[in-house]
C-alpha cells in the first residue's frame, strides 16, 4: 500500500497540511508511500523510521521516512530536509524527532530527538537533471543503541549488479524492497487514506540511470511501490540474508501507480556527503 506526500498522521493539523502542500508545490514531487505492500508488524525493518515534528502550537505530524545508517545519523531525501529545516529555523516547528516504531503514534512509541538537519550542499530541487543530489541527513542527539544501522553500498554497487547480469526485468526480474510510512492507496486509485504505520513492498527493476534507480510499481503486474509520504525511505537490495540500502525514495507519477524514481546512494557524491557528515561526528 502507498503513502502520501509529506506523510501526515491521523492527527494532522492545518499546519501539517500546509507543509504537505508546500512540499508538493515547491518541489513538484509526490513524497511517497508504499502501494500494494504490507504492514511491517513483525519488525522486519527496524532501521527504517518516521520523521515526526511538533509545531510551536503543539500540533504533531509525520514528515517523510528514512533510514538509520549510523547510531546518530538518519538518511532521508533532500526534498524532505530542505522544507523541514526552513520551518524549524523560523520557529514554526519547535521539535523534530525520529521514531523507529512500526506505529510511531501508537502507545509507548519512542522518539529520538534531532539536533541538526543537513541537506546535500549541491541539492537544487528535483528539477529535470541527471543528478539532483536528493539526499539529507538528520543528526540525532543520542546514539540509537538497540537498532543495527543499515549497510551502505560500495561505490557503483548498482553498476556492479548490472555488470554481473543481476538487474534483469520481466520473468524472474530483479526485485528491490521499498519501505516507508504514509497514506495508503485503495483501488481504484487515486484514493488515499492515512494509517501511519511502517509498510514494505517489492518493486521490479526497470532501468539504471546516472542518478536514479527506476522501478515498476504497477499492481496489475504484481509490483508494489512508493507514493506520498514514503519520500526519503530506503530501497534495499536483499540477497543471501543481507540487505544494502542502494537508493532513497524520491519521486514518481502523481497517482503512484506506474513507476518510481529513487535517488542512488551508491554514487561517489552521495557517499562523500554521507561519510563526510559521519566523520564530522567522530
Description:
The chain is an alpha+beta fold and 282 residues long. It contains 4 helices and 15 strands. The strands form 3 sheets. A 6-stranded antiparallel barrel has the order 8-11-12-15-14-13. The model is unreliable at 1-33 (pLDDT under 50).
Helices and strands in order:
Blueprint: H1 14-27, E1 38-39, E2 48-55, E3 60-70, E4 73-76, H2 78-90, E5 93-99, E6 112-119, E7 136-140, H3 157-163, E8 175-180, E9 183-186, E10 191-194, E11 199-208, E12 212-216, E13 234-239, E14 242-252, E15 259-264, H4 268-281
Antiparallel strand pairs: 1-11, 2-3, 2-5, 3-4, 4-7, 5-6, 6-7, 8-11, 8-13, 9-10, 11-12, 12-15, 13-14, 14-15
Strand order of the largest sheet: 8-11-12-15-14-13
Low-confidence stretches: 1-33
Structural class estimated from helices and strands: alpha+beta
Summed up, the helix count is 4
* Strand and helix order: HEEEEHEEEHEEEEEEEEH
CATH topology: Thrombin, subunit H
The best one-word shape is globular
Strand content: 25-35%
Please give the radius of gyration in angstroms: 17 Å
What is the CATH C level class, in words? Answer: Mainly Beta
CATH second-level architecture? Beta Barrel
Number of strands: 15
Salient structural properties:
single chain, 282 residues, alpha+beta, Thrombin, subunit H, six-stranded antiparallel β-barrel, 17% helix, globular, disordered N terminus
Amino acid at each position: 500500500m502507498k503513502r502520501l506526500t509529506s506523510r501526515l498522521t491521523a492527527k494532522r493539523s492545518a499546519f501539517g497540511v500546509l507543509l504537505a502542500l508546500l512540499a508538493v508545490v515547491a518541489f513538484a514531487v509526490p513524497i511517497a508511500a508504499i502501494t500494494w505492500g504490507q504492514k511491517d508488524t513483525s519488525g522486519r525493518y527496524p532501521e527504517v523510521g518516521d520523521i515526526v515534528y511538533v509545531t510551536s502550537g503543539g500540533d504533531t505530524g509525520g514528515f517523510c521516512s528514512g533510514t538509520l545508517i549510523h547510531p546518530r545519523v538518519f538518511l532521508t531525501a533532500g526534498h524532505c530536509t530542505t522544507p523541514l529545516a526552513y520551518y524549524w529555523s523560523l520557529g514554526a516547528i519547535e521539535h523534530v524527532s525520529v521514531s523507529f516504531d512500526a506505529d510511531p503514534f501508537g502507545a509507548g512509541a519512542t522518539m529520538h530527538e534531532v539536533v541538526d538537519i543537513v541537506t546535500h550542499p549541491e541539492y537544487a530541487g528535483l528539477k529535470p537533471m541527471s543528478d539532483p543530489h536528493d539526499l539529507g541527513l538528520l543528526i540525532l542527539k543520542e546514539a540509537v543503541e538497540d537498532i543495527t544501522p543499515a549497510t551502505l553500498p560500495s561505490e557503483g554497487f548498482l553498476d556492479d549488479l548490472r555488470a554481473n547480469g543481476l538487474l534483469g526485468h520481466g520473468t524472474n526480474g530483479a526485485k528491490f524492497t521499498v519501505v516507508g510510512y504514509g497514506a495508503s492507496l485503495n483501488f481504484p486509485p487515486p484514493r488515499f487514506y492515512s494509517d501511519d504505520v511502517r509498510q514494505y513492498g517489492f518493486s521490479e527493476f526497470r532501468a539504471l540511470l546516472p542518478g536514479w534507480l527506476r522501478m515498476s510499481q504497477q499492481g496489475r503486474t504484481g509490483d508494489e511501490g512508493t507514493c506520498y509520504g514514503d519520500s526519503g525511505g530506503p530501497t534495499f537490495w536483499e540477497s543471501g540474508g543481507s540487505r544494502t540500502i542502494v537508493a532513497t525514495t524520491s519521486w514518481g507519477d502523481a497517482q503512484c501507480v506506474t513507476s518510481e524514481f529513487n535517488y542512488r546512494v551508491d554514487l561517489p557524491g552521495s557517499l562523500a556527503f554521507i561519510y563526510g557528515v559521519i566523520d564530522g561526528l567522530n
